[in-house]
Design a protein that fits this description.
Largest sheet of chain A: none
Helix content of chain B: 40-55%
CATH class of the largest domain in chain B: Mainly Alpha
Strand content of chain B: 15-25%
Structural class of chain B: alpha+beta
Strand content of chain A: under 5%
CATH superfamily of the largest domain in chain B: MetI-like
Structural class of chain A: mainly alpha
Order of helices and strands of chain B: HHHEEEEEEHEEEEHEEEHHHHHHHHHH
Radius of gyration of chain B: 36 Å
Shape of chain B: elongated
CATH architecture of the largest domain in chain B: Orthogonal Bundle
CATH topology of the largest domain in chain A: MetI-like fold
Number of strands of chain B: 13
Helix content of chain A: over 70%
Number of domains of chain B: 2
Number of helices of chain A: 13
Oligomer: heterodimer
Largest sheet of chain B: 11 strands, antiparallel
Shape of chain A: globular
CATH topology of the largest domain in chain B: MetI-like fold
Number of domains of chain A: 2
Distance between the termini of chain B: 23 Å
Chain lengths: ~350, ~525
């Protein structure tokens, strides 16, 4: 276990360093470059400019001095403000939203469950469905189902998830509403908000999330089917499969008990590399369906240059990615210790 | 090298062989049916984009109001679906002149088409001027129209008289017939005479006026888009604000429109409030221009601002092909250069740094960064795609790195090294040519991603608002009410466009994959 834990420690360190670099790049792009372009004029800092814009609103005028002090906006950008920025992010101290005037952390925590529901649903459902269709295509390989699934795989390579969502909204929400008076899926207008848990709110939430998950499944299950089929096919020709068949085991038993355990590492690896894509997809889903998650909240914040929320969103979204890929790496190392050993 | 052959000839022969090989490869590609289909799609959109200025006269971004909003395509419209009808209503004549006292009224036509009406003297006058030109309207009532009008009043003599001026559009046939609109909403019932809509009334449209007439010099030249609900209540017969004056009051199939100008003049020394001893006014009136916006237009109708959808589609094809190819090329080139160098110098500092940068970029969330850059530096196409290129080359770089790592230990590279070739020369002369198939293949397969990413960024409103891309069309359709109104002619073209062009590039890429990969493997 020594090699594996050393590998995990190295990965953890690497993840941490990567995170630092990413949030530093963000700081440079959003804060340092605009000031540099203005010839070092600190008033060109977009954060200060945004604060000055809010000055006209009497609700905000007393907040500006507080905010400038709180973020140390009167100090030089590098190194003082940069170090404050790093410290704030690493301690999850994102400050107060300029527009809602509530702590960013609580705003995000309120919305995180919605995002996680959407994110995990959009991640897991296509895999489960792809797994079963993949198994079916292996069993009937060369058949009609196989050919259909291959072309679906190509289509899902081309058509992005948000486009499928738009089409679902068009054909199953807007058109039925227009011609029959009642939509099959809800229009992306009134987002669910669960203040108390009862059957009615849950039902509405499920109805509202249904088109999103349908779009995720339609967009991504094809490529998973193709993936499961390809890796299982590559295993089919191996000796241990012949042995298992020679023992007289049924085809399904061979696939499930002998082939699949060997496929776990590539599956987890692919999952890890697939996460950024679905993260982007889920982000657009939230924005076009008014889903009350962190992406939709941050979208409004971006439009208003609500700097604390923007920063929190950027940091959290890259952290989400880094952590999910780190977990995938750890899982692979535990399932298949050879990976850890190979990398020295 | 064969004896007696000069280096120049040898090079020429080499070039010939290379050209032959390229020709062979092209023929090989064309043997695949999917490649032909893909190539046909890509060529189709390239030609469409290249001929955009020829195919459409309209501006895809700023060319608003070429017809009414949500005009259907010409080929699904019924014969009586409204089309654009426009004209200048000219040839004015005085049809009614009621004068009290000693008032002189003179009207003359000026060379620039406008008319000058001179009213002077003490007394009162009510003058009605109509245009002898009429506008024939042969369709069902349209929903909106534009009226341009202009006038200038100047003092004649010592003092200005009191006056009012009003412009109206009149439907001659409806007025003759005495048609009436019966308005019923709830328990309200009104009878509104059809056929007259006052477009401008100097005194009547004021919020508050202490006098029934005015006496100031004015110079007005403007246009109004009708129906304008604010003025509904200020008509001679006040209308509720939910009456569409254009379709319900003014227009009907096979009728004629004309312009009517009302001038009221008063100059009386006995009036207590509006004192005037000796006045005179010259009215310079431009002929009215009327444009009735059609509800059927062109090949693909119009969007919610009355912009021609076909021109947006055609220019969108241009953007998709040019942007898709150039961004993909930049991405792939950057990836290949970094990847090859890193792979060739595997284990060096350069390799470590490159690999680390690749990892970092891989974890940087693209959309949030593009959103941040868009907000800080403005939503500009060049910025969006600079960020995109900088964040998406690592995929190709990884691939190129592993390829060049494998090539590095090949015998001919060793031989080149032994001859004393520099690293740069080896990379450029020996390794990069090997990777040309990889370059072409990853270039083609990257284009759909570029087009889709642009569309996604535009969809959430962070695209360049001045670029007529398909993504911008989808964004406008989604947020501009196309779904609610079922404006399929506006929703479907960009969606079909991005899907088919992506399909074209993907089919081409798949065919190239089949051809390129065995060759790379055979090595």
């Amino acid at each position: 276990m020594g090699a594996v834990s050393a590998y995990i420690a190295r990965r953890a360190l690497m993840t941490f360093v990567t995170f630092l670099v990413i949030i530093s790049v963000y700081f440079i792009v959003v804060r340092v470059i605009p000031v540099m372009l203005a010839g070092g004029n600190p008033e060109a800092d977009p954060v200060i400019a945004a604060l000055r814009r809010t000055q006209e609103d009497p609700r905000f005028s007393n907040w500006i001095d507080y905010t400038i002090k709180r973020f140390g906006l009167d100090k030089p950008l590098i190194p003082d403000q940069y170090l404050i920025y790093l410290k704030n992010i690493l301690t999850f101290e994102f400050g107060v939203s300029i527009y809602t005037q509530k702590p960013v952390v609580s705003e995000i925590l309120n919305r995180l469950p919605y995002t996680l529901v959407l994110y995990s649903g959009a991640m897991i459902l296509p895999i489960i469905i792809g797994y079963y269709t993949g198994l079916a295509t292996i069993r009937h390989r060369g058949g009609k189902l196989d050919a259909i699934m291959t072309s679906i795989g190509i289509i899902s390579y081309i058509v992005p998830s948000w486009l499928i969502l738009l089409l679902i909204y068009y054909f199953l929400a807007y058109l039925p509403k227009l011609y029959w008076g009642t939509p099959i899926f809800p229009l992306p207008v009134k987002a669910p908000s669960i203040t108390e848990i009862n059957w009615e709110t849950i039902k509405y939430l499920l109805w509202y999330i249904a088109p999103l998950l349908t779009a995720a499944v339609l967009a991504w299950f094809g490529s998973w089917t193709y993936f499961f089929r390809q890796i299982a096919m590559s295993e089919l020709g191996k000796d241990y499969v012949y042995t298992a068949r020679a023992k007289g085991l049924s085809e399904m038993h061979v696939i499930k008990e002998h082939i699949l355990p060997n496929l776990k590492p590539p599956i987890i690896m692919r999952l890890a590399f697939w996460l950024p894509g679905i993260f982007g997809g889920a982000l657009i889903f939230e924005i076009i369906s008014n889903w009350p998650g962190i992406a939709y909240f941050s979208y409004a914040a971006f439009l208003n240059f609500d700097y604390p929320v923007m920063t929190a969103f950027f940091a959290i979204s890259s952290l989400l990615l880094l952590v999910s890929i780190f977990i995938a790496d750890v899982l692979i190392a535990i399932i298949d210790p050879r990976v850890a050993l190979q990398q020295r | 090298m064969a004896e007696g052959v000069s280096i120049a000839e040898y090079r020429k022969q080499l070039l010939k062989e290379r050209l032959l090989r390229i020709k062979e490869t092209i023929l090989l590609v064309l043997r695949h049916r999917s490649a032909i289909i893909g190539l046909a799609i890509v060529l189709f959109y390239s030609i469409l984009g290249a001929l955009a200025p020829v195919l459409t006269p309209y501006d895809p971004v700023m060319g608003m109001d070429v017809a009414d909003a949500f005009a259907v395509p010409e080929w699904v419209a019924a014969p009586d679906t409204p089309r654009n009808v426009e004209g200048i209503l000219d040839n004015y004549k005085i049809v009614d002149k009621s004068v009290v006292g000693d008032v002189k009224v003179l009207m003359e036509r000026l060379s620039d088409g406008s008319i000058a009406v001179k009213v002077s003297g003490v007394g009162e006058a009510n003058i009605t001027i109509v245009s002898e030109d009429t506008l024939y309207y042969p369709y069902r009532p349209a929903r909106s129209m534009l009226v341009k009008y202009g006038f200038k009043t100047t003092k004649l003599g010592k003092e200005m008289g009191w006056y009012n001026i009003a412009f109206a559009i009149e439907n001659i046939d409806l007025r003759e017939r005495g048609a009436v609109l019966v308005y019923k909403r709830g328990d309200r019932e009104l009878e509104i005479p059809k056929g007259l809509y006052v477009v401008y009334d100097e005194v009547g449209f004021r919020m508050y006026s202490p006098f029934p007439l005015v006496r100031e010099e004015k110079n007005v030249s403007t246009s109004i888009r009708l129906p304008y609900y604010v003025i509904n209540a200020k008509q001679p017969v006040p209308m509720p604000d939910d009456v569409n004056a254009v379709s319900e009051i003014l227009l009907e199939k096979d009728t004629r429109l004309r312009a009517v100008i009302y001038i009221t003049y008063s100059c009386s020394s006995t009036s207590a409030m509006m004192r005037c001893s000796d006045g005179g006014i010259e009215f310079l009136i431009q002929p009215l221009y009327v444009k009735i916006y059609g509800l059927a237009h062109g090949i693909l109708g119009t969007n919610y601002l009355g912009v021609d959808v076909w021109s947006q589609f055609v220019y969108g094809a241009r953007i998709a092909v040019v942007l898709g190819l150039s961004v993909a090329l930049a991405t792939v080139l950057l990836g290949i250069v970094v990847g090859v160098l890193a792979g060739y110098r595997v284990g060096t500092l350069f390799d470590y740094v490159a690999t680390f940068i690749i990892d970092v970029i891989y974890f940087t969330p693209l959309l949030p960064l593009i959103m941040a850059v868009g907000i800080v530096f403005g939503r500009r196409l060049d910025l969006i795609f600079s960020v995109f290129i900088l964040l998406s080359w690592p995929g190709t770089a990884r691939l190129a790195r592993s390829w060049s790592m494998a090539l590095r230990s090949d015998l001919y590279i060793e031989a080149a090294k032994a001859v004393g070739a520099s690293d740069m020369r080896i990379v450029i002369k020996h390794i990069v040519p090997q990777l040309v198939p990889l370059l072409v293949y990853s270039l083609v397969l990257r284009v759909p991603g570029v087009i889709m990413t642009e569309a996604a960024i535009s969809l959430i409103g962070f695209g360049d608002p001045h670029t007529p891309s398909w993504g911008k069309m989808i964004n406008e359709a989604f947020y501009g009410g196309a779904f609610l109104q079922n404006a399929w002619w506006w929703i479907m073209p960009p969606i079909v466009g991005i899907v088919t062009i992506a399909l074209g590039f993907a089919l081409l890429g798949i065919a190239l994959d089949e051809i390129v990969n065995p060759r790379l493997r055979r090595r």
